[in-house]
């Protein structure tokens, strides 16, 4: 679990580094100028890290499934070599798809306004600037979104379905509580991330409100990566005790 959390932490650092520094610079300068190549690079990296997060969350769900449902075979199934292979496949698999997706977007004609009504270069606001037919491009986005969002999400649902089924068969209430506590952090992150990301990339572009899209994007690119360390550290009893002491001091 901690091996995957290590890679998940690195991923979150990369994810916020792509968006937050540029956003803060634009807010301070009140200019927001961005070159064509810089915009394409930012979009490519955001899509890459977003797709990687979906895959890595699915891998972590499978890890929890094996740990709870097959504890005696855990070391055999999730050997260090298998863990490295799963993480490597997650990091590498999305690269050619994302590069092709970015190239397809920026090969469209942009003959009108070049002002992006967003705080970073994302697919929906860039599509709205294109003056050509974007129907084929949007279909490609939906296909990629189904592969990188819905398929991992279904794997997570199946994994947790089997986990809950096995937990409910435990006779000990303490055992059930301990098993649920090992999954609560990951499940919270899955609900937060998938709930916002799927709204952005699985909804038709014409139906998306620009202000709502910016708010949702702010959630999955800034707020959720900020909350993830808090969500996972709350499982640590020392952090929980320290937090309770702090809250009691603030309340008195």
TrEMBL record:
Span of domain G-protein coupled receptors family 1 profile: 1-232
Annotated localization: Cell membrane
Transmembrane segments: 6-24, 36-62, 139-165, 177-195, 215-234
Keyword Ribonucleoprotein on entry: no
Domain of life: Eukaryota
Gene Ontology cellular-component terms listed: plasma membrane
GO molecular function: G protein-coupled receptor activity; olfactory receptor activity
Membrane topology: Multi-pass membrane protein
A Pfam family it matches: 7tm_4
Function summary: Putative odorant or sperm cell receptor.
Database matches in PANTHER family: OLFACTORY RECEPTOR
Name the record gives this protein: Olfactory receptor
Origin species: Capra hircus
Organism ancestry: Eukaryota, Metazoa, Chordata, Craniata, Vertebrata
């Amino acid at each position: 679990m901690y091996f995957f959390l290590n890679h998940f932490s690195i991923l979150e650092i990369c994810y916020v580094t792509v968006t937050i520094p540029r956003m803060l610079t634009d807010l301070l300068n009140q200019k927001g100028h961005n070159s064509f190549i810089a915009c394409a690079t930012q979009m490519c990296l955001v899509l890459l890290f977003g797709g990687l997060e979906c895959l890595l969350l699915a891998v972590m769900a499978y890890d929890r499934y094996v740990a709870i449902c097959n504890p005696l075979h855990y070391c055999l199934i999730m050997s260090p070599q298998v863990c490295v292979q799963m993480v490597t496949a997650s990091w590498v698999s999305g690269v050619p798809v994302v590069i092709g997706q970015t190239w397809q977007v920026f090969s469209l004609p942009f003959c009108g306004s070049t002002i992006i009504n967003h705080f970073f270069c994302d697919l929906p606001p860039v599509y709205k600037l294109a003056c050509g037919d974007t129907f084929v491009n949007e279909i490609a986005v939906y296909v990629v979104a189904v592969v990188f969002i819905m398929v991992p999400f279904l794997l997570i649902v199946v994994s947790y379905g089997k986990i809950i089924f096995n937990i409910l068969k435990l006779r000990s209430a303490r055992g059930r509580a301990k098993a649920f506590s090992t999954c609560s952090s990951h499940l919270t992150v899955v609900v937060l991330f998938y709930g916002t990301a799927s709204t952005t990339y699985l909804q038709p572009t014409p139906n998306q409100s620009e202000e709502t899209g910016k708010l949702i994007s702010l959630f999955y690119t800034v707020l959720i990566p900020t909350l993830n360390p808090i969500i996972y550290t709350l499982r640590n009893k020392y952090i929980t005790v320290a937090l309770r002491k702090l809250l009691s001091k603030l309340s008195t």
